[in-house]
Design a protein that fits this description.
The protein has 314 residues and is mainly β. It folds into 2 domains: 117 residues, Immunoglobulins (Immunoglobulin-like); 131 residues, Sandwich (Immunoglobulin-like), CATH 2.60.40.10. Helices cover 13% and strands 37% of the residues. The chain is built from 2 helices and 19 strands. Strands 10, 13, 17, 18 and 19 form a 5-stranded mixed β-sheet that branches. Strands 1, 2, 3 and 6 form a 4-stranded antiparallel β-sheet that branches. Strand 2 and strand 3 form a beta hairpin. The chain is elongated, with a radius of gyration of 38 Å. About 2% of the residues have low confidence.
Length: 314
């Protein structure tokens, strides 16, 4: 009986006092948010990009430099698609040409072989960077979309100037090409006029060297003015060697950022883009003649004078 009374006393009086003496120490827990970050890499444009591209008709090499922040030894998965039109819902990219990589973070790449370029529109590479162990960790832009690079397989501009060309002289006609293409290519420029014409054209020097993005080169068809005959339309036919073959003009894509200013034509299964300018002809004025021309004029004048005397007295 005494033991029972003692137990009740301990429970009712001693335990609450002891419990009140216990101090709970606050605990602080730190949570780390892991993110994926991209760093610039080399690119065909010559400037650093977060997704770098190099390639030709046979392949596209896709480069990147992705790391975790804070750094971790976990692997990273990357999949890149060619010409995915939806950079918000990546599931719409499934089934398109692509390449993948799984490995450590840092500089890496993958390759799409035999890419099916869309020569009629702007092309793109869309990539998904994510943690294979924790798929919720992925890289997106601030607007919630996946990173994407855009490019044109073939794009170039042409500049050529007309003017007045002098009778009896052969002059180089500069046709200047500027490449905005992903594909490195030669460019060809041929000058033509409708026959008959007062000028003759030599198109021997008509093809540029291989141009990379933003490189410039000029070809020089030679124009010889035979006689003076006002003005005429000069046609400049241009093409890029990397363009696909055609069966009709409908197979020829636009090659300039401008939608006007040239005509398209399919000649011998090759797409040609025709620009026009005006060219005129004029006789040399006396101050424009050099010493050789003046001597020639003098000799001809003397010969004509002697011929007139002979005809007059004989």
């Amino acid at each position: 009986m005494k033991k029972l009374i003692m137990s009740i006393f301990l429970v009712l009086f001693i335990y609450p006092i002891a419990k009140a003496q216990v101090t709970l120490v606050p605990v602080t827990t730190t949570f780390f948010v892991v993110t994926i970050e991209l760093y610039p890499v080399d690119d065909y444009t010559g400037s650093n990009q977060y997704i770098g591209l190099f390639g030709n008709k046979e392949r596209i090499d896709i480069l990147w430099n992705a790391k975790y922040n804070p750094e971790t030894l976990e692997p990273i998965n990357v999949t890149c698609w060619l010409n995915c039109r939806n950079k918000t819902d990546i599931t719409e990219c499934y089934g398109l040409q692509n390449c993948s990589h799984q490995g450590s973070t840092g500089p890496a790449s993958c390759t799409i072989f035999n890419p099916k370029y869309d020569y009629f529109s702007i092309n793109n590479i869309t990539c998904k960077f994510f943690n294979p162990n924790r798929p919720e960790i992925e890289y997106k832009l601030s607007d919630g979309t996946y990173p994407q690079r855009v490019f044109y397989p073939i794009r170039y501009s042409v500049s050529v100037s007309g003017g007045i060309y002098q009778v009896g002289r052969t002059i180089d006609l500069p046709i200047t090409f500027v490449s905005y293409s992903f594909l490195n290519s030669n460019y060809t420029g041929l000058a033509y006029v409708q026959q008959p014409s007062f000028i003759a054209i030599d198109n021997t020097y008509n093809t540029t060297r291989i141009l990379r993005y933003l490189q410039i080169d000029t070809v020089y068809p030679k124009i010889a003015v035979i006689y003076s005959s006002g003005r005429s339309i000069l046609y400049i036919n241009t093409t890029a060697n990397e363009l696909p073959s055609c069966n009709s003009v409908n197979d020829c894509p636009n090659i300039s950022l401008a939608t006007q200013g040239y005509q398209k034509s399919c000649i011998d299964r090759k797409c040609w883009y025709i620009f026009t300018t005006e060219i005129g002809s004029a006789y040399l004025s006396l101050p424009e003649y050099g010493i050789k021309e003046l001597i020639l004029v003098l000799i001809i004048s003397v010969a004509i004078f002697i011929l007139i005397l002979i005809m007059k007295y004989y």
